[in-house]
Amino acid sequence: MTADTPDHSGFDLVVRGERMLTTAGIVAREIGIRDGRVVAIEPLGSGLTGTEVIELTDEQVMIPGLVDTHVHVNEPGRTEWEGFDSATRAAAAGGVTTLIDMPLNSIPPTVNVEALDAKRAAAAGKTHIDVGFWGGAIPGNTGDLRGLHDDGVFGFKCFLLHSGVDEFPHLDADEMEKDMAVLAGFDSMMIVHAEDSRAIDRAPSAEGNKYERFLASRPRGAENVAIAEVIERARWTGVRAHILHLSSSDALPMLATAKRDGVKITVETCPHYLTLLAEEIPNGATAFKCCPPIREASNRELLWQGLLDGTIDCIVSDHSPSTVDLKDVENGDFGVAWGGVASLQLGLSLIWTEAKRRGIELVQVLDWMAAKPAALAGLNTKGKIALGYDADFAIFEPESAQVVDVHKLHHKNPVSPYDGRALAGVVTGTWLRGKKIDFQTAHGRMLRRGGV
């Protein structure tokens, strides 16, 4: 054997089957894994041998582990809402092997190095999957941005209106531009909750149990104005900018134009905007409340088109849980209920159910939910089954079905708009760096930008 010849003498794990989702598509392959990495991809029948061998059935597909770059774990400080143990269990059950945690809703918020250290300490020994962190950009912490960047955050989140928690105040557009210019100096990224506070201040009140009233309180125009601000400030500063949880399809043409113009801007949307409809949300059903809101059927169709034409880059959960009490389930008042959808465990099946109905292939779904989010965060060994990549994968049965029982999910609080919903596709197992996740022993690592 020469130095250029791969060593196929034996692996820690071999996975073989007729349907393996590699960079060549869904093909018949044998995958050899050693020391947590994919080191061999050979045609089925090549006879790779390993300490452990997994033989897939005809109903199963080996898929890359999903990468979810928008998760609110809420620990430390609001661990009764969620926490690293429950969040990463839920993620693993849904085929997610990497998540990046948002900087707000924890106390303290991740706006300086000391707070980042506190969050890492809170997560230690509790992560069943790999976890990275976003930093926060708030008024007065411009001087903390470089330190957070050097300590490994993947970029910085800001709001253009009240964040929902007083510990994480919002920036105005000029403050955002100032921070963007700083971030451009060391090639970091600004990720933005883009709703305009002035437009929402002038909108009707959300008070009451009627969903149509809540929808009117968060108009599309609030998103459109804020997104226009992000585009122009990104154009002027040259920073990499990212639009979080796009809800308004009205913004798609200007985002497409900005991309054509060379503005460094990317866009995500979420399962709730792609699967739920405003017209079908019952009055008082505050489990559906999120900001920006779930909009109408025509809007949903245009978001799917935005994914297919590449204007929207990826699909992530925006898992934003809370206690049942904060959702005001008993009263059903959209004006006081916490705004957020819990869906971390369900994302793949939610999107696959809708994609399958539309004739969209599983390969495309995994590009949106694994490869593209990994690329967004610069995770160069995640999101694909490819040579040299981490052996993060799941076994998925796309033809199987499930009915969501909110009490059987790993989420800490049993509240979700998907309770009772019939979904296509079931994850039957998830592996992190070649080891099956058993939901008992936490083998996840804490990731830093540019390396572990």
How is this structure best described in words?
By secondary structure, the chain is α/β, with parallel strands linked by helices. It has two domains: 11-58, Urease, subunit C, domain 1 (Roll); 65-383 and 400-421, Alpha-Beta Barrel (TIM Barrel). The protein is built from twelve helices and 17 strands.
Residue windows where pLDDT falls under 50 for at least 5 positions: 1-5
Rounded Rg:
21 Å
Bulk shape:
globular
Query: What is the CATH topology of the largest domain?
Result: TIM Barrel
CATH class of the largest domain: Alpha Beta
Largest sheet: 6 strands, parallel
* Beta-strand content bin: 15-25%
| CATH homologous superfamily descriptor of the largest domain | Metal-dependent hydrolases
Number of helices: 12
Write the H/E string, N to C. Answer: EEEEEEHEHEEHEHEHHHEHEHHEHHEEE
- Would you count the extended β strands for me? 17
Give the terminus-to-terminus CA distance: 32 Å
Main sheet: strand order: 9-10-11-12-13-14
Mean pLDDT, nearest integer?
A: 96
**CATH architecture annotation of the largest domain:** Alpha-Beta Barrel
User: Roughly what percent helix?
Assistant: 25-40%
Structural class: alpha/beta
